[in-house]
Amino acid sequence: MYDPEPSSGRRVAWPSNGISEVPFRTYTDQDTYVREQERIFKGDTWHYLCLEAELTAAGDFVSTTVGEVSVLVTRDAERTVNAFVNRCIHRGNLLCMGRQGNVKKFSCMYHGWTYDLTGQLTGVAFEQGVQGKGGMAPEFRKEEHRLQKLRVEVLGGIVFGTFSDKVAGLEDWLGADVVRGLTRVMNRAPTLLGRNTQILPNNWKLYIENVKDTYHASILHLFLTTFKINKLNMPGGIFINPDGGNHYSFAKLDYEAETAAYKDEGIRAESDFRLQDRSVVESVDEYGDGVSVQILTVFPGMVLQQVRNTIAVRVIRPRGVDRTELEWIHLGFEDDDEEMTERRLRQGNLIGPAGYVAMEDGFIGGFVQRALQYNDEGAGVVMMGGHEAESQTFKASESAIRGFWKHYRALMGE
Ligand code: FES
Ligand SMILES: [Fe+2]
Fold first, then answer.
1. Which atom of ligand 1 is nearest to the CA of 88?
2. Domain extent listing, the chain
3. Mean pLDDT across the chain, nearest whole number?
4. Which ligand is nearest to the CA of 94?
5. Which superfamily, per CATH, for 164-412?
6. 203, 365 in Cβ contact below 8 A?
7. Which of 163, 321, 332, 353 has the maximal Cβ count within 10 Å?
8. Which secondary structure element, helix H or strand E, spans residue 208, and what is its range?
């Protein structure tokens, strides 16, 4: 039988102080990767599945993955959103090959078994045999078989799913702060502006750590410092839920002062570098609260970002111990006018695989992974801002990273 708790390998040893030293082997160890699929991705966690806007009509479906497991999300005739594992119960074939579409039912290409939009088995080819011979065993009942179901909840137009029967409801699990952060950005009906996917040559955890790392932004990202766009001294803070894994950080900008500074740039500029075309950063305070950057994570692998007026969901999907798929889903809102859509698209140049800013986040994990190749003893130091994983009113801190490891260790039993 398949053993989700491989006993052959050494378990990664954690230093006793908990979450401010992270063993490098956690990014390179194959047994850890297998345990993560069971304990994190199929465990007591909620995962991004799709946008509700992708399932407008009955019969609409989206194919996705939770961890490495293929999952279908549907809107049925009763308008309920369902999610179930994309694996035929007959012989385990991948049931649906499509990425997205509209269907009346799912038919398996292998032996033609069919399922309705809730995942219930509805048809078995040659169930009664042929010419009175063969057919399914008499005790077999179609009604007793269905595709493995996930629990589903929708918040802010985002469809979430979990394999767990016992994890708390989505909002309790996210925590009040993170619910507030999520619904602040997703406060009206979203539209899909586009998407792209990149492959990161590194362990999935290096990317989610990077997202939670407010420390690096003004150092690694030269675009920000060269053009004086983001500084650690902007007012802001970090909210972390009690379990540690969900968080958001935010920074405020004085929009009026920025506009004035641009007009006055001849006096204020300290470097010779200028953006000839400022439209890539010119933004409006669309939420009316002065927050220009809000980065939110949902453990283990979803990010919701507002960087000025560019809004995106990022989904981190592990594809092997040193390979990760990162999808960017660029959003607008139904009430956007043409000017706002144009603004979002221009600012979209900052993010995504080749983004002026996000580009560095896409490659830095690969450099770490290379440095760990056959050299993964010891542990990394995550002590900026202390040893705990508490919410903070400043950003020179790695507390959100420690929060990730707090939740991770609890689920992994390490
Ligand atoms: S594997 Fe799907 S019908 Fe046989
Ligand atoms: Fe970054």
1. 2
2. 47-153, 164-412
3. 92
4. 1
5. Naphthalene 1,2-dioxygenase Alpha Subunit; Chain A, domain 1 (3.90.380.10)
6. yes
7. 163
8. helix 204-212
